[in-house]
Amino acid sequence: MNTFGNIFRLTSFGESHGKAIGGVIDGFPAGIAIDMDFIQNELARRRPGQSAITTARKEADAVEFLSGIYEGVSTGCPIGFVVWNTNQHSNDYDNMKEVFRPSHSDYTYTQKYGIRDHRGGGRSSARETIARVVGGALAKLALRQLGIRITAFTSQVGPFKLDKDYTAYDLERIEDNPVRCPDQELAKEMADYIFKIKGEGNTIGGVVSCVVKGCPIGLGEPVFGKLHAALGQAMLSINAVKGFEYGRGFGDMEMKGSEQNDIFYNDNGHIRLRTNRSGGIQGGISNGEDIYFRVAFKPVATVLMEQPTVDINGNETILKARGRHDPCVLPRAVPIVEAMTAMTLLDFYLLNKTTHL
Amino acid sequence: MNTFGNIFRLTSFGESHGKAIGGVIDGFPAGIAIDMDFIQNELARRRPGQSAITTARKEADAVEFLSGIYEGVSTGCPIGFVVWNTNQHSNDYDNMKEVFRPSHSDYTYTQKYGIRDHRGGGRSSARETIARVVGGALAKLALRQLGIRITAFTSQVGPFKLDKDYTAYDLERIEDNPVRCPDQELAKEMADYIFKIKGEGNTIGGVVSCVVKGCPIGLGEPVFGKLHAALGQAMLSINAVKGFEYGRGFGDMEMKGSEQNDIFYNDNGHIRLRTNRSGGIQGGISNGEDIYFRVAFKPVATVLMEQPTVDINGNETILKARGRHDPCVLPRAVPIVEAMTAMTLLDFYLLNKTTHL
Amino acid sequence: MNTFGNIFRLTSFGESHGKAIGGVIDGFPAGIAIDMDFIQNELARRRPGQSAITTARKEADAVEFLSGIYEGVSTGCPIGFVVWNTNQHSNDYDNMKEVFRPSHSDYTYTQKYGIRDHRGGGRSSARETIARVVGGALAKLALRQLGIRITAFTSQVGPFKLDKDYTAYDLERIEDNPVRCPDQELAKEMADYIFKIKGEGNTIGGVVSCVVKGCPIGLGEPVFGKLHAALGQAMLSINAVKGFEYGRGFGDMEMKGSEQNDIFYNDNGHIRLRTNRSGGIQGGISNGEDIYFRVAFKPVATVLMEQPTVDINGNETILKARGRHDPCVLPRAVPIVEAMTAMTLLDFYLLNKTTHL
Amino acid sequence: MNTFGNIFRLTSFGESHGKAIGGVIDGFPAGIAIDMDFIQNELARRRPGQSAITTARKEADAVEFLSGIYEGVSTGCPIGFVVWNTNQHSNDYDNMKEVFRPSHSDYTYTQKYGIRDHRGGGRSSARETIARVVGGALAKLALRQLGIRITAFTSQVGPFKLDKDYTAYDLERIEDNPVRCPDQELAKEMADYIFKIKGEGNTIGGVVSCVVKGCPIGLGEPVFGKLHAALGQAMLSINAVKGFEYGRGFGDMEMKGSEQNDIFYNDNGHIRLRTNRSGGIQGGISNGEDIYFRVAFKPVATVLMEQPTVDINGNETILKARGRHDPCVLPRAVPIVEAMTAMTLLDFYLLNKTTHL
């Protein structure tokens, strides 16, 4: 259950304050040139300390590949990798060893496993997503050859949200601001808001949207492997995610069938759709239109305020978190959403090759 | 990819207008008494023709078990079953053989497989969910012994929605109206609305909510097998589902961390939570509180109106659907949501048994 | 665990004296013409009562496909099928309900599951292999298009064994005798021996050999998915199999490395091997030479003689088996070995398609 | 396909001359004390250079755990580990970069992947088994708590073989000689023979036998997950293995059913078997008796003699291997056979916990 995917498979390991985060990528196609700068840049997008609105932790997060790449090219053998943990302040967590932090996994891990590494959230730390970003970066290198492009962005932070459809924005410019929002004005408001929330020692959630362009027709495996079901699982496996919708999602309920349906037409010899309310997926299979979906992130559970809680013996106590934490995960979640999307699409692309003899 | 689950596994087969829908349930625990009446009743809840607001098709949907049960008790061997298709009007679909119905899977199946059984949607028909309801009914029989109770209900139809939290309603009474809504007054409005929509030859979507009570602590397998990620995939694999959220879901974005966190306290020696905004799952693992989530269904794609479309050669044409269709899938989706939930929970219950030696 | 394969997957169900044996084949490529006569003929090769040296049971073993085939062609959707049990004499087993038959699975099933269908061996009956033969027949239809040909044959029955390498025999003639041995003279001796053993109420084991011609280079997935490891598992999953060896197998121990190695040479521009001691597989991957392996079957456990045993309460008793049983499974095992080989090769052929983008 | 197991899962990575061999163990039970000395000792048993009859390479093979263990106890989270490659003489292989070594995987890897790391066999090197020994050592720590004991030993080297059943030997004494043979006299003959073969620059194969004591009744998952089928796959996935048999294996063919059957009796209230020809497994499920099986290893393909072969362009050439190689893998294969057995048994032990609710 620490493995993601069917053909392309990422198995990840590592705790926040252990020696390293790492993983094994199996099923990666042979013969793909591995662009190390690209991979490291993807990690930089996820890295803490990248701007004033993220946690102040500084981690190099340099990936070290141990196998599966020979002379800069993937060999088809499993790709092992590690990212060493170098900037852990485990002492920050000493006062939490026997205390259950509210809305964290401390209580459930302790109950399930009977033991837990309390330092920095242990296995349930968002630091685990490093392995996903490495896997996603490799997947992107393969998808790039297929012309599949994935762009995620922050579409809502607390009360601030994009008021138009993604087609209204220049998705090439999400890296122009630290929030990763394509509306540069709104991005500034979001950043100010996050900065203010941070000052309060509080946190805030939001929505990451994601758009896939250039996806070929035919990805998705009915009935339980519908493409959007796989994407949904992928997104819901990211820390702090509470919801997923694709196409018009929960908004579909306001429309009647006659209004919601996407109409086919003949576009100079090509079958196309006049609208894309389906979000690029019909019957669980990609139809060649843009795939788009939204992912809801709750506010970070660690607030720098006093909160009542209990310890492992059930005694009520007051917790005051220390440590360096994100007031809002959205900006750093963007590359993680992209990574999970990339791995899902590459996996389904490879699976689809087995549809015919 | 027609298999659902890890330990408890349902593999389903069958097309809408083929000989039968069926499946194999593997990994079902040995020694469970099989209550046939209960299973058949679950199928009756899913069956078409059960009320004036569903399709007029009449199908007995009687399940025939072929293996794995001996003298009324599960043997631990795979349980094969079939539900024969007896009331198919395949001719209703003759005019669709070479036409792509809007917002159906006709186009994507044809592109992916190069061949498709066009009758009644073939494999992509919601009739496939019969196998899920059988699997879910068996899972419920096992979960019942564990004290785990699952209740889904219609919480929204088009513009009509429940305005209170599920705790405000009597969930024992969802079967008291054909919409399966716990608010009897609202149910009547919903039914009237569906009836009106049906008269227009149109369709409408909505939301099914689901509540799990009595779930033990510890179900869920970090990091990719988080319980809510598995539930999300399960729900998104149901036909017409466009979104999934658990706990406060997309609503979490409006709250700050200090407001959203659930606070632990000592309830006469038991560790409990003062609120349940987390929806019964923390860190991907059940925490013993009620699990609740919401599932968005789009309006049924088949409307009894003329719609422009194209045929398999790309020629534009006008489609006028015939056949007997649901104006709103919500009432019949309720038992399907419950079934997928039951199978997911039983699977994770069994998985959790392997956490310790 | 009732599922075989990775991409091509057979999930089987059914007990000897239940309603039916059946299964679901998932991942079968779309667009393959389904030759029903061929499939039924494969079942006829496995069927009891086909000659004087097999059990006297007469079973039609007619397969009924329920899905996944439309107008004679596979659709890429799961193929459900059943073979009804029609000639069961369950009363033959009444005296065994509470008795553990020696060297059968009665004791272990009872211990593991706490319940068992005692009639005819229940799930552990060799009748379960019907589902494998159906799956194998479908796989053969696909492999035929790829030019891959599988031939198994009886190479040993008790003390009677082929004394030459498979290349010395005409493998086209294995169906010319009821033992399915390519040496027609030896076949007669084997048949006489089996007939004599049958007259004693006793049973005898032997070896089935299998040769695959036309297998493309590249099938096999290191390190745990080596082609011969998958074939070994497939064979060892057949009832009564006690051993598997490929290439020279256990015979390799007598040779030194310098004698055992296969030497490459240039055969008019093609790289070939002067010998094939490796059995067509090197490093777990097919090398384009003939694949060959041997499978050891123990004597059938059911002998028509008095045997001491115990009942479910531990009381010692004398068992005298009734019923209609094979004195030697080898002739009927030949198509089963072929079926498992076919499914394994098709699965690995499909897997291999994902090696490159 | 670089993952082994169902619940307990080892995913391995690494090439002989890459940075490291390593892996991730997922599904290891929580709460097991990790005895580092024991694990390191298991690696020492596999290590090259341990005696005069193994390769002269000296590798420390020190394992470094990166996750999943906290304060000396397993946490239930994935256990990542690496063993750094420190003593590689990659130059030894320079002359093999473009040459296919006979009976190695060079040719098939190149054909399948289009690229290969030629140094030391790359991924197909037996050095990969380091990851298996680490996984096996952890599994043994868990099995020890269950009273399950696994002992493998060399039972044949070339023409020298044990002439009695395993019960005739003291299995506690296999470590008393470098061949790991329980017959100390024969061990000396074997060692002399290997030393002589080594002097010739040649190699020799043999058989490793394995005995499991204390295995509880009920491990094994019919029909495709029979315990011996899983053990067979596990053994056949080890480099150089050509055959597997359990119980009397290929020897069963000489006996009639009445002679081969194991008879049950009542041993002071316990159901026992008078003989154990079945090898501890009936119907694919362990029956509580000793499990025993035999594994055939071919001679090492690398001989220090001139051999004709071809290069990647098909040109015929003469290869003279350099490097440090084993004349006989048997002594070092013993701990690998034990490791694969341990992982298989732990996996099936955990799976068996899901048989009942």
UniProtKB/TrEMBL annotation, chains A, B, C, D:
> What role is this protein assigned?
This reaction introduces a second double bond into the aromatic ring system.
Q: Which UniProt keywords apply?
A: Amino-acid biosynthesis, Aromatic amino acid biosynthesis, FAD, Flavoprotein, FMN, Lyase, NADP
Q: Which reaction does it catalyse?
A: 5-O-(1-carboxyvinyl)-3-phosphoshikimate = chorismate + phosphate
Q: One biological-process term from Gene Ontology?
A: amino acid biosynthetic process
Q: How does it assemble?
A: Homotetramer.
Which family does this protein fall into? Belongs to the chorismate synthase family.
Q: Name one Pfam family in it.
A: Chorismate_synt
Annotated InterPro entries: Chorismate_synth, Chorismate_synth_AroC_sf, Chorismate_synthase_CS
- Residues holding FMN: R123, S124, S125, N239, A240, G283, K298, P299, V300, A301, T302, R324
Quote one Gene Ontology molecular function term: FMN binding
Record-given protein name:
Chorismate synthase
Gene Ontology cellular-component annotations: cytosol
The protein's organism comes out as Candidatus Phocaeicola excrementipullorum
- Domain of life, source organism: Bacteria
Native organism taxonomy: Bacteria, Pseudomonadati, Bacteroidota, Bacteroidia, Bacteroidales
Write down how the cofactor binds this protein.
Reduced FMN (FMNH(2)).
Enzyme Commission number, as recorded: 4.2.3.5
Xref: PANTHER family: CHORISMATE SYNTHASE (PTHR21085)
The protein's matches in PROSITE patterns, at most eight in alphabetical order, are given as: CHORISMATE_SYNTHASE_1, CHORISMATE_SYNTHASE_2, CHORISMATE_SYNTHASE_3
Cofactor(s) listed: FMNH2
